[in-house]
């Protein structure tokens, strides 16, 4: 998953014959393989992505209270930007010395929830690229599992890493080792989606998994940023991906669906596609109707309305660029997990008061670049940039920040 948007158990032997492999995965098809650990597999399968250190992280506790959500997919674990084979958050924050993410996890668990960690994503340097083999890659990820006492992990294998066959062999091998060494660990694998299901590199990744005898709880595709137009194009891709899983692993359709997942993008995608609440409902109906194993999306950081709602026709990492109530999209994950989201509060009889007057300058956009002297409006105030900036929200950086508050509009 791009930085802007940047998504199971029992070990399989590499020597399993095709018939034995089919029997093995059929035994997992109920999706209950992680039920003895943490929240249970269904919640980990429904966990939306959340960047805990970037993209204006929302309060997970508030999301839990508003939606009933219990699981979060924390993103992304990468290799250090300066090189090496040790895990970091986003390439910059070493897992070994982390307290910020650990604190967020503690707060989530205190409310009865849990987290999974997602490794990889779009861009950055992945551990599979830097580590020398599958064993050292697994050892790096084991540090993350051990530190945070994880019951679930997601391998988000996409550009540029999945174009590197050696790196993908390291990642798939590491996933298999972690599965073997952590009984009950829920493992998902996420990759790019195309109209054909997944592209050439995604198909090579599936072949690598077959070669190594590795079967995760699910293989998920991301049907967006590829010329998709709403739910119909996404469900078509999911149908085609199911056929790929059947032909690769020798599964029937039901077994393939029981190991297939969906990872969407809420609102406006990086390439200007739009996925509304009704699109999410359509894909959710498809997923539950076909017995699919996972339903997630990128991201909770974006699951809130922009100002203005269309974000001036741009995509943001901190809001959806479509009209919505806060956490609208998270409620579809809650439904997939089998829970009923709490009802939204009734609308107030009086319209909410405006934090200020009408602004005559353009609204601030997280994706825009501003230079010294540029003026924007945000939360009813007018702001002037003191120097070059991008994705620094006015009003959040304090007196010494980049934005000078010029008062209410």
TrEMBL record:
Pro residues bias (residue ranges): 342-354
UniProt keyword annotation of ATP-binding present: no
Signal peptide as annotated in the record: 1-17
Keywords carried by this UniProt record: Hydrolase, Signal
Domain GH18 per the UniProt entry, residue ranges: 44-330
CDD domains: ChiC_BD
InterPro entries: CBM5/12, CBM_sf_5/12, GH, GH18_Chitinase, Glyco_hydro18_cat
Pfam short name (any one): CBM_5_12
Spans annotated as Disordered: 338-358
Protein name per the record: Chitinase
Organism, scientific name: Streptomyces violascens
The organism's taxonomic lineage, starting at the top: Bacteria, Bacillati, Actinomycetota, Actinomycetes, Kitasatosporales
């Amino acid at each position: 998953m791009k930085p802007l948007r940047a998504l199971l158990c029992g070990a399989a032997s590499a020597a399993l014959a095709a018939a034995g492999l089919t029997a093995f995965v059929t035994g997992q098809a109920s999706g209950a393989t992680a039920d003895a650990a943490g929240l249970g597999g269904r919640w980990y399968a429904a966990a939306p992505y959340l960047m805990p250190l970037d993209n204006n992280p929302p309060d997970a506790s508030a999301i839990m209270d508003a939606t009933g959500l219990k699981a979060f997919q924390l993103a992304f674990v990468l290799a250090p930007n300066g090189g090496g084979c040790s895990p970091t958050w986003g390439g910059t924050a070493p897992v070994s010395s982390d307290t910020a993410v650990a604190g967020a996890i503690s707060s989530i668990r205190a409310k009865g929830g849990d987290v999974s960690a997602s490794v990889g994503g779009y861009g950055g340097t992945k551990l599979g690229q830097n580590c020398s083999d599958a064993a050292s890659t697994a050892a790096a990820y084991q540090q993350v599992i051990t530190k945070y006492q994880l019951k679930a992990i997601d391998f988000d294998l996409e550009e540029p890493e999945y174009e590197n066959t050696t790196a993908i062999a390291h990642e798939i091998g590491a996933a298999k080792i972690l599965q073997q060494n952590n009984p009950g660990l829920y493992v998902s694998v996420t990759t790019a989606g195309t109209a054909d299901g997944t592209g050439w590199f995604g198909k090579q990744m599936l072949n690598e998994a077959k070669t190594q005898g590795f079967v995760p709880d699910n293989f998920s595709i991301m049907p967006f940023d590829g010329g998709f137009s709403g739910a119909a194009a996404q469900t078509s891709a999911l149908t085609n991906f199911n056929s790929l899983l059947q032909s690769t692993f020798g599964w029937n359709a039901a077994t393939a669906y029981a190991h297939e997942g969906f990872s969407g993008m809420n609102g406006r995608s990086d390439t200007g596609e739009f996925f509304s609440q009704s699109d999410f409902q359509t894909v959710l109906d498809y997923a539950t109707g076909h017995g699919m194993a996972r339903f997630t999306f990128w991201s909770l950081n974006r699951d809130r309305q922009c100002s203005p709602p269309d974000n001036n026709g741009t995509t943001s990492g901190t809001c959806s660029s479509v009209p919505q109530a806060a956490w609208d999209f998270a409620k579809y994950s809650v439904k997939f997990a089998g829970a009923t989201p709490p009802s939204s509060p009734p609308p107030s009889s009086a319209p909410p008061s405006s934090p200020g007057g009408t602004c005559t300058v353009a609204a601030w956009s997280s994706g825009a670049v501003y230079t010294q002297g540029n003026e924007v409006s945000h939360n009813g105030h007018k702001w002037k940039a003191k120097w070059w900036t991008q994705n620094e929200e006015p009003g959040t950086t304090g007196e010494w920040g980049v934005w000078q508050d010029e008062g209410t509009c």
